[in-house]
Amino acid sequence: LIQQESFAPLVKQVLPAVVNISVTQKTGSQEMSGEENIVPFPDFPNSPFNQFLHRFFNQQGQGGERHFFQYPGGQVKRIALGSGFIVDPKGYVVTNNHVVGDAASVQVILQNGHKYRAKIIGRDPKTDLAVLKIAAEKPLPHVEFGDSSAAQIGDWVMAIGNPFGLGGTV
């Protein structure tokens, strides 16, 4: 058995290109205004994570940005969060198609805290991929696509992201 070296150098290299995607979604045929149509985070009394989830979503609201969920048949303003990767120094970002959903507006937040409005360049529901473009003042840190045909069963893999705006997770 070969002892694996630290993943720290790889994380240090890749993490600056990991972004948080914040999406304000469309709410049907009419645009929502005000909080009268907003439903707060639901209660999950049987879940051991209930207290954590409420604390997390309440803390998110302290900065002026609140996160809500859309219920079936309801007209609810919703802010969705997800991860993405900068794949080109000119500001092209890849994320999941389901993250951008029915976006009314998309914001990309870099690891250094810089925020950019993003334009959806393309989407593919079948592969669940979307490409965004942000206008940065200077070249951005980025990752390059690898060759998946070189991967073998038993190779080490790593997942890096920024789910729920929690910061880079590995």
Features:
170 residues, alpha+beta, 3 helices
Write up this protein.
The chain has 170 residues and is of the alpha+beta class. 14% of the residues lie in helices and 28% in strands. It contains 3 helices and 6 strands; from the N terminus they run αβαββαβββ. The chain has helices spanning 8-14, 50-62, 97-100, and strands at residues 18-25, 78-88, 92-96, 103-109, 115-124, 129-134. Strands 1-2-3-6-5-4 form a 6-stranded antiparallel β-barrel. Strand 5 and strand 6 (129-134) form a beta hairpin. The protein is globular and about 55 Å long.
The biggest sheet amounts to:
6 strands, antiparallel, barrel
What's the average pLDDT? 77
State the helicity in percent bands. Answer: 10-25%
Estimated radius of gyration: 18 Å
Strand order of the largest sheet: 1-2-3-6-5-4
Q: What is the succession of H and E elements?
A: HEHEEHEEE
Percentage of residues in strands: 25-35%
| Global shape | globular
Low-confidence runs of at least 5 consecutive residues: 29-40, 59-67
Number of helices: 3
How far is it from the N-terminal to the C-terminal residue, by CA? 24 Å
Number of strands: 6
Class inferred from helices and paired strands: alpha+beta
